[in-house]
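Researcher: Please translate sequence to structure tokens.
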Amino acid sequence: MLLTARLFITLFLALPLTLSMAMAAPVSHSREIDITAQDHSMLSLRQFPAQGHYLAIWIASGYGLSPRDVQLASGLARQGVEVWQIDFAQAMFKVGGSNFLRKLNPNYVVDLIHAARTRTHKHIVLISHSYGAIPALRGATLWQQSHNAGDRVRGVILMSPDLYASIPALGLPPDYLPIVHTTNIPIVIYQSGKRGNAGQFPRLLKALVQSNHSVFFRFMPSVTSPLYPGDTSAPTMRLLRKLPSELHGVIRMLDRLPAPKKVPQYAFRTEQIVPLDSRLKPYRAQPRPRSISLVSADDRHFHIDDYKGKVSVINFWASWCHPCREEIPSLNRLRKKMRGKPFQLISINYAENAKTVKAFLKHEKVDYPVLLDMNGKVSAKWNVIAYPSTFVIGSDGKIHYGVNAAIEWDSPHVIHLLDKLMPQKLSNHAAHENFAAVRQSQTAQPGSNPVTD
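Model: Translation complete:
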């Protein structure tokens, strides 16, 4: 069903592009408008007026509206789709981020839909990306529960949505918010193949289609994010040029879909937020590390099948990730402190090309090998969800610790844990455990001889 949906979107969009571009209406200057919510809060947003039949409520990701958000909203208005663009964190004078959007009451989205319908009588769609998908899906579903099919939200367009209940412990699969398993509103997803959540995308689709038969997607393997200013690759720039017209075609497609036959039962409640790691934690997933076969930024080939004999730190990162960059100096210091010991430190760059990584390394001192996972497949095999993510492998070849956040790698606590994983320490520990096990089994048997040195 998902493959059919993907082909359907591709074929549908190939036809109306020229027509929709020809019908594009001039866009007026954007302006700020205020909406009064039911709790009497005043929500300020940016309106891009247009003369067409559609209105898109565009919800920021939680980290503000980038120039490309504004560029695409303006382009969509030129296609005849009015856009109301809101950054809830800014509008409510709050600190943004993923946890803010997880906690945001989706009735504010319902208030926006109500204001848009009352003021314009247009057909409504919601657009968002990353963690903005959470209030978008919740708000659309709550509106659906309290209004008839003729007054429905036509659908939700999501760009690389992040719908995790929380970031799980390193190596474990994510749990998704209840709305993922509940909503049946039509959804179109633009998934960037080089974004950090791309490896989890099949799992998200599987969760969505359990309750929703109208999930369509387009996978963009060479794109990091059309809304990330740092992604200036040729595929991304081509997508940006045609995306306003393409979104107009998607909105028209959503408008033609029938209303869901059944109204989902959903009640919003604030989920418990699990904070990101702040220190190394015992690793609870499959302890055997995956092999690595990659080329480094300086064109050397690295192949690791057997991790035994050394303590290995495998760090997954990306140049666009601020915490990743912040922890590089401490990783450099760690490598220096571990010099002379059976230790190796390797970093794996996620889904960036060699040119980008080499340019970064010219300005940032990195004293350890940087391997290029240009298609993101190695990161996906290691089940990496957040960046940075780092695995600590003992000299026995097993993963002992992990952390999915930036930490101070040369702290005394970390050095102490790494030293305990060295060959001599682990062999002594194993011998002690074996001795204790034998002693316990023999003392449990009457008449057995005691173990002596």
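Researcher: Any highlights?
Model: Confidence is low (pLDDT under 50) at residues 1-28, 430-453.
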